[in-house]
Amino acid sequence: MDSVYEKDYGAFKDFLESQNAEFNYELIRKAYEFCVTMHKGQLRRSNEEYYIHPVCVAKIVAQLGLDSESVCAALLHDTVEDTDTTLEDIEKLFGDEVALIVDGVTKIGRLSFVSKEEQQAESIRKMLIAMGKDIRVIIIKLADRLHNMRTIDFMPQQKRRDKALETLEVYAPIAHRLGIRPIKEELEDISIACLDPIAYEEIEGLLNENFKDSSRMLDTVKDRITERLKEEMPDVKTEFQSRVKSINGIYRKMFIQGRAFEEIYDIYAVRIITDTVANCYNILGIMHDLFRPIPNRFKDYISTPKPNLYQSLHTTVIGREGVPFEIQIRTFEMHETAEYGIAAHWKYKVGVSGSDKGMEQQLAWIRQILDTQNDTGDASEIIRSIKVDLAQDDVFAVTPRGDVINLPVGATVVDFAFAIHSAVGIKMVGAKVDGRIVPINHVIKTGEIIEILTTNQAGHGPSRDWINIAVTNQAKSKIRSWFKKEKRSENIENGKIEIEREFKRNGIVFENEASLKEFLTDIAKRQHLENIDELYAAIGYGGVVLARILPSIKDNYNRISKQNKVIVTTPEITPHRRTKANDGVIVEGIDNCLIKFSKCCAPLPGDDIIGFITRGHGVSIHKCDCINVPKNIDDSPEPARWINAYWADNLPSTFMASLQITAIDRQGLILDISQTLINMRVALHSINAHPTKKGNSLTVITVSTEGVEHLKNIITRLEKIHGVYSVERLNK
Ligand code: MN
Question: How many angstroms is it from 50 CA to the middle of ligand 1?
Answer without folding.
Answer: 10
